[in-house]
Amino acid sequence: MSRPPFLDLPAGARAYRLSTARGEFAVQECGAPERGTALLLPGFTGSKEDFIGLLAPLADAGFRAVAVDPRGQYETGGPDSEQAYAQSELALDALALAGALTTAGEPGAAATVPGSPPHLLGHSLGGLVARAAALRAPERFASLTLMSCGPAAVSASQQQRVTLLLSALGSMSMEAVWQAMRELDQSPAEAGQAPYPDGAGPDGPGARVPPDIDAFLRRRWLANVPAQLVAGGRQLIGEPDRTDELAALPLPVHVVSGSVDDAWPVPQLDAMALRLGARRSAVPGTGHSPNAERPRTTAEALTAFWRELSPCPG
């Protein structure tokens, strides 16, 4: 659902496979945990690259940022079984990732402070998974940020689109589905999303997608496990409202979105934030993926929240 603004990792960032109690996950990481660690989960059809524009700003603010390809998405891979991508399974993966990031000396990862849990952020479908993980074990996280993620199923129009996609996945090859989405101008890249970082290029519908980004979007789509897409799509159209459960937890929550959103209408996100007693941030001039559309502005909103919870040591 997100289109990365660029693909080259910023200075000081690295890509590797993070070992956890539930297997290895492809990640991109930047920064040292002076103020804490941020664990970033992408949305439906997305990947760690959706957060690439956030890595340097978060690192500059004193946070270790770790963006993940969840099970079945892009470079992590996974089995061809829908049950493997049940929300409960993905929530356990998030808890395993959190555990790896709070264990000093974890192979393949920079050491962090034992016992210091990460700030968990989930975008769109990743937000539903992040919420499930927080409900299962809130003590494993320093905070929860729901980015462009509402209280229950996506809007009626998006449910129709997802249902069409599920039907296509049941009868067409991944390549054929990709070509059909391109022809309908409904590719996994969000229609009308700015393909550049803040102030770096043209904005709005019809903005040119650079060839390297276009090739990446196709490569990423083809690498996704179809069973994961089916399971994720079903979550998007069938998710119950668990806002009251989340509100009962002693966990700081931040609701972040663009100024417009066709997956969960912005007024619905405003109301959810009120029910949660959560901080609310709307990034001006962005849609469903503020993390990719205006990453620096989005990073400012995120770090303002996290800094209050993670004061600078010393």
From TrEMBL:
Residues 191-208 have a biased composition (Low complexity). GO terms for molecular function: hydrolase activity. Pfam families: Abhydrolase_6 (PF12697). Keywords: Hydrolase. It comes from the Bacteria. InterPro entries: AB_hydrolase_1, AB_hydrolase_fold, Carboxylesterase_BioH. Signal peptide: none annotated. Residues 39-301 form the AB hydrolase-1 domain. Residues 185-208 are annotated as: Disordered. PANTHER family: HYDROLASE ALPHA/BETA FOLD FAMILY, PEROXISOMAL MEMBRANE PROTEIN LPX1. This is Alpha/beta hydrolase. It comes from Streptomyces boncukensis.
